[in-house]
């Protein structure tokens, strides 16, 4: 079983009389790309500021690298890199010089500059002034700055904000490579759910400062499959409709060009396909309305909004 590189236990936080986090529970497995999702005002930025030691922890416990943040702040931060939206760069200096200044602050070996430049694909542009960098290049340099101390954990808040599709893809591929080839745990907060869907292995969905879902993407999709509708097309839809009905499948009223069946589990798809083929029918199409991450996210957060005001201690059921 993987150890957790981030854990929060009963984390609550208020700005004056306004409570922002309510008993927030997070478990980020070491080695994961962890998507951190929530609507605007859900408490994501506050959580990240607490994880980086920028806000105090008045209630609850925060563990990073297995250590209590209150007691080991300096040591924890030395093992943690971060990029919060846009990097702060000295625009009159080159990319290399920006890295050199930061390297001296974190006391990293000088050889790390060449290593991180190669990692983020900026070796050829290292001597250019950063005022000449595109937004995507600036973001990659910001990640290079976060990597100088060779941290085990990288916290990225909206790293693709404002980028064009090409820049978004470059950052996504870099995140995957940092995780796969360098073993970095990535804590990734983003509004681009399609990007989280393409790279995250685990995720948490929060709203109003409480955890609504936490777990793997695979488990989230499997739980959403429970009442899916399967559409199929054969060379004889009338016969297919009767055959499936006779075998106790939940078949919806027949349409002209397809047959719609309600299935409870994806294994039923293979079974009904085999039934149709064994009875001489040619199956032209099988398509499911499986929800994507955006639809599941809206389902979970909207369900929470419609629920009573009591906070949930268990993940929302789909």
UniProtKB/TrEMBL annotation:
Any Pfam family matching the protein: ABC_tran
Residue ranges of every copy of the ABC transporter domain listed in the record: 6-233
Entry annotated with the keyword Coiled coil: no
Coiled coil spans: none
GO molecular function: ATP binding; ATP hydrolysis activity
InterPro entries: AAA+_ATPase, ABC_transporter-like_ATP-bd, ABC_transporter-like_CS, P-loop_NTPase
Gene3D superfamilies: P-loop containing nucleotide triphosphate hydrolases
Keyword terms of this UniProt record: ATP-binding, Nucleotide-binding, Transport
PANTHER family reported for this sequence: ABC TRANSPORTER, ATP-BINDING PROTEIN
Full protein name: ABC-2 type transport system ATP-binding protein
Native species: Pontibacter akesuensis
Organism phylogeny: Bacteria, Pseudomonadati, Bacteroidota, Cytophagia, Cytophagales
């Amino acid at each position: 079983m993987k150890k957790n590189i981030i854990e929060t236990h009963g984390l609550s936080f208020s700005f004056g009389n306004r409570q922002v986090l309510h008993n927030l529970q997070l478990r980020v497995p070491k080695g994961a790309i962890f998507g951190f999702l929530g609507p605007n005002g859900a408490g994501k930025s506050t959580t990240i500021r607490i994880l980086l030691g920028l806000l105090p922890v008045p209630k609850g416990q925060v563990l990073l690298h297995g250590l209590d943040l209150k007691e080991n702040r300096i040591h924890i931060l030395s093992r943690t890199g971060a990029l919060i939206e846009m990097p702060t760069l000295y625009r009159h200096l080159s990319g290399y010089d920006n890295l050199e200044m930061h390297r001296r602050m974190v006391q990293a070996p000088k050889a790390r500059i060449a290593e991180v430049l190669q990692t983020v694909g900026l070796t050829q542009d290292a001597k250019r002034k950063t005022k000449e960098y595109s937004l995507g290049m600036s973001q990659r340099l910001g990640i290079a700055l976060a990597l100088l101390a060779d941290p085990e954990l990288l916290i990225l808040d909206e790293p693709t904000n404002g980028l064009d599709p090409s820049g978004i893809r470059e950052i996504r591929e870099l995140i995957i490579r940092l995780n796969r080839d360098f073993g970095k745990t990535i804590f990734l907060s983003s509004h681009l759910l399609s990007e989280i869907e393409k790279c995250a292995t685990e995720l948490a969905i929060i709203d109003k400062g409480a955890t609504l879902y936490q777990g793997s993407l695979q488990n989230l999709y499997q739980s959403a499959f429970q009442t899916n509708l399967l559409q199929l097309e054969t060379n004889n839809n009338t016969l297919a409709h009767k055959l499936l009905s006779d075998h106790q499948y939940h078949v919806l009223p027949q349409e002209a060009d397809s047959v719609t069946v309600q299935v409870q589990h994806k294994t039923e798809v293979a079974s009904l396909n085999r039934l149709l083929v064994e009875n001489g029918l040619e199956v032209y199409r099988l398509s499911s309305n499986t929800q994507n991450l955006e639809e599941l996210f809206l389902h979970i957060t909207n369900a929470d909004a419609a629920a009573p005001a009591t906070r949930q201690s268990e993940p929302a059921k789909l």
